[in-house]
Design goal:
The structure holds two protein chains of two kinds. Chain A has two helices and eight strands; from the N terminus they run βαββββββαβ. By secondary structure, chain A is α+β, with helices and mostly antiparallel strands. Chain A has a single domain, classed as Alpha-D-Glucose-1,6-Bisphosphate, Chain A, domain 4. The longest helix of chain A has 18 residues. Chain B is of the alpha+beta class. The chains are: A alpha+beta, B alpha+beta. The interface between A and B is large, with 54 and 57 residues.
Chain lengths: 151, 155
């Protein structure tokens, strides 16, 4: 899942927002921060952070493998990208509630009630980031200041 | 499609040495100077052997849109029935307009997408790695490689 949003005229403190997002990812016991980059791309401030699953999961299909959050731009014109990756995500048969794989490898996709699903995690994180943007913005949050890009 | 494109193949009856295949894939990722191995997981999932390696870009790119951010290769199964998944991720891939060769970024953000001749593109890298993995599967398999032993899953 990739969510890309452009925010304008919010007066956002991107440094604080980034720190809060990092803190949020660090609180998840299944994740470890594996990569961080802070700098600029062609003069545009750029921060990115990747957290990966620290241990082999109990079930594979759809389990959260990594999450990357990227912020780029300036306080009144910036982009947020949230990517969540899952193992073997395209082997799920939506609507059928089952899996495409059978035989010995079918078990790898099997039950694991405590697994962190990428889609579920992505939805939760998206809402948390929305709260953090409001917290770290000096101007009023409004839907008219946001543009969402989808694949 | 520029990124977030998982490529999954199931291989049957190839009698493949999976630990050796995995080692060669790790070596291939280590040979790419822009990448660092950032995570490796080995073990089993519900008693099915599982190996996964993630390599991430080492440094901030000269341009962002479509540039390779990370690659993950996962092998799970047994020598005569296994899956290989390859994921390549890119930053802001859904801001690119593939048919126009342009991006929809304007104003101060436009610099993110400016040309950089040395960019390592996710799509390009993924195609190359897919070919390399095919070669490595053949190298480490005792069974004869044929298309009917391979099934590809795509979104």
């Amino acid at each position: 899942m990739v969510l890309t949003r452009k925010y304008k005229d919010l007066g956002t403190n991107l440094e604080s927002l980034y720190k809060d997002i990092k803190n949020e990812l660090q609180q998840d016991k299944d994740l470890t921060i594996s990569s961080e980059m802070n700098g600029s791309v062609n003069g545009v401030p750029f921060k990115t952070l990747t957290a990966v699953r620290a241990t082999a999961p109990r079930a594979l299909t759809g389990t959260l493998r990594e999450v990357t959050v990227t912020l780029a731009g300036v306080s009144d014109d910036w982009l947020l990208e949230v990517h969540t990756g899952a193992w073997f995500g395209n082997m799920i048969l939506p609507g059928a509630g089952g899996f495409l794989i059978a035989g010995p490898i079918g078990a790898a996709a099997g039950a694991g009630t405590t697994m962190v699903l990428a889609r579920e995690y992505g939805r939760k994180l998206k809402n948390k980031i929305k709260e953090l943007i409001k917290k770290n913005s000096g101007k009023q949050y409004a839907e008219s200041k946001i543009e969402t890009f989808i694949d | 499609m520029l990124s977030n494109m998982p490529f999954i193949r199931r291989y049957k009856d190839l009698n493949t040495d999976l630990p050796s295949l995995y080692k060669d894939i790790v070596k291939e990722l280590q040979n790419e100077k822009e990448l660092n191995i950032s995570n490796e997981l080995k073990g089993d999932v519900n008693k099915v052997p599982f190996m996964s390696v993630t390599a991430s870009r080492k440094s901030i790119p000269k341009l962002v849109t479509g540039t390779l951010r990370e690659v993950t290769v996962t092998i799970t199964g047994e020598k005569n029935d296994y899956l290989v998944e390859m994921h390549t991720g890119a930053w802001f891939s859904n801001l690119a307009m593939p048919y126009l060769g342009a991006t929809i970024l304007v104003g101060p953000l436009a610099g993110l997408a400016l040309a950089g001749a040395t960019g390592l593109y996710a799509g390009q890298y993924g195609r190359k790695l897919k070919g390399t993995i095919k070669g490595l599967v053949k190298k480490h398999s005792k069974g004869t490689y044929s298309d009917e032993k391979v099934e590809t899953f795509a979104e």
